[in-house]
Amino acid sequence: MTATDTTPAALRTEAEPARPIQTRSERPTSFDPADFGAPTGREVNWKLSDVRRLAPLFVDEETEAGDEPGIAYDVDGIAERGLLVESTGHDAAPRGEIFRPEDVVSAIAWKRCPNALHIRLPEGQEVAEPIVARLHGLGADRHANAHIVIEAQPGSIGTVVLHHSGSARYAQNVEILVRAGARLTVISVQDWDDDAVHASAHQAVVADGGYLKHMVVSFGGDVVRVNPSVRLAGHRAEGELYGLSFADAGQHLESQVYLFHEGVETRGDVLYKGALQGTGARSVWIGDVLIGSGATGTDSYEKNQNLVLSDGTRADSIPNLEIETGDIAGAGHASATGRFDDEQLFYLQSRGIEEEEARRLVVIGFLMEIVQKIGVAEIEERLAEAIDEELRRGAGLAPATRAGA
Predict the structure, then answer these.
(1) Average pLDDT over residues 161-178
(2) Cα 268 to chain center, whole Å?
(3) How remote is the C-alpha of 43 from its chain's centroid?
(4) Are 128 and 166 found together in one domain?
């Protein structure tokens, strides 16, 4: 595919836009990185990002022959179960069926990764055990690009987990196709080492009667930017978008979320929660919801909540809602950032709980609402441990000993 597929006459470079782009639906797309240029930090989709630390991902360079890969993919178990599909070349369907790069990083990842990792749930079948793709970075100096296709065939049911660990400079596209009547859960876990740089664009479409639960969980990494875009295209399509982040000193964790209600009687729910501790901890959440002119009977709500645990942190939270039809069931948005609830702390302390433990219980209670929505026991347990580790680190306590350690 080439940029001509996306009406290049309408494109504006990120560096010098002809006019300010006010809404998410207006953003230009292209498969050619040259159509975007390197971000400066003034562009609407980059103004809250750390472009300095993300800069290695803005370079469009071909990998030298013999260079070792930046990411090791552990997908043998997926192949053995018959859920991995060969996808060779940019034109291998269904790659590119709905994916359109919205920025230079995504366009480079498309261009420099000719083959896709394609996971497919069989039509009419339920895959009971979660499908886990473990993506391990091989070094902070290693660069990697990826295109991943997750396809739920009609009537299928299953959960796909993308688990990121290690370190790398990683640009990633994830294309999610939920066919008619399918029920799919996609969980992206960013459990990177402290020096990883990761930018990912997730784009999904949900057909008639389909359901997508999409989750972004970010703990590790230096800079992590995971931007999900979900189009509820079919009649009574449903989408639930959840996110959880815990930013430590110096970390930048970001998600720009887009939910487009296109079909009739669609339902959407967006809930992202974050905690921040340590000087320089930064979280960015931008939530854009568009209810299209034909999306009658839509019911949609988005909310972002951030809990600040120490001084020197910053949380940006920007909800946006566009409604192009008056015939809807409901729509709303909310955002809140604040410190501990003194009444909750007082209540726990009045029951004989020490202040530090009371604070820990409040944070765990705040974040566990998202953790419990995952539905995969292994991941839920690991995240509960990770939350506890983060809190103990912030309090200067030794890590708790794991059972069996």
Answers:
(1) 97
(2) 16
(3) 20
(4) yes
Report the first-to-last Cα separation within the chain, whole angstroms.
Answer: 51
Same-domain pairing of 274 and 326: yes
Residues 42 and 64 in one domain: yes
CA distance 3 to 16: 19
Consecutive H or E run containing 87? none
Which residue among 291, 318, 339 closes a domain? 339
Asked if 182 contacts 158 with a C-beta cutoff of 8 angstroms, the reply is no
DSSP assignment of 231-276 equals EE-STT-EEEEEEEEEE-TT-EEEEEEEEEE-STT-EEEEEEEEEE
Q: Please, are residues 31 and 5 in contact by the beta-carbon 8 Å criterion? A: yes
Q: Quick one: which of 303, 166, 321, 331 has its CA closest to 242?
A: 303
3-class DSSP state for residue 314? strand
Tally the domains of the chain. Answer: 2
Summarize pLDDT for 174-194 with one digit per residue, the tens.
Answer: 999 999 999 999 999 999 999
Task: For residue 349, report the phi and psi dihedrals to the nearest 5 degrees.
Answer: -70, -30
C-beta atoms surrounding 53 within 10 Å: 14
Which strand (E) or helix (H) includes residue 347?
Answer: helix 342-350
Query: Under DSSP, is residue 313 helix (H, G, I), strand (E, B) or coil?
Result: coil
Is residue 134 located within the same domain as residue 246? yes
Based on the fold, state whether residues 312 and 172 are members of the same structural domain. yes
Burial (CB count within 10 angstroms: exposed 0-12, middle 13-18, buried 19+), residue 229? buried
The pLDDT score that the predictor gives to residue 20 is: 57
Check whether residue 243 and residue 125 sit in a common domain.
yes
Looking at this protein, which amino acid is placed at residue 4?
Answer: T
Outline where DSSP puts E strands in 277-313.
282-291, 299-308
Pairing label, strands 157-178, 282-291: unpaired
What's the rounded Cα separation, in Å, for the pair 144 and 40?
22
- CA separation for the pair 79, 119 (Å, rounded): 9
The letter for the amino acid at 265 is E
Domain that holds residue 15: 3-339
In angstroms, the CA 353 to CA 349 distance is 5
> What is the value of pTM for the model shown?
0.90
Cβ-contact 172, 148 below 8 angstroms: yes
Q: Are residues 102 and 176 in the same domain?
A: yes
Asked if 320 and 245 sit in the same domain, the reply is yes
13-44 confidence digits (pLDDT tens): 444 445 556 577 778 999 999 999 999 999 98
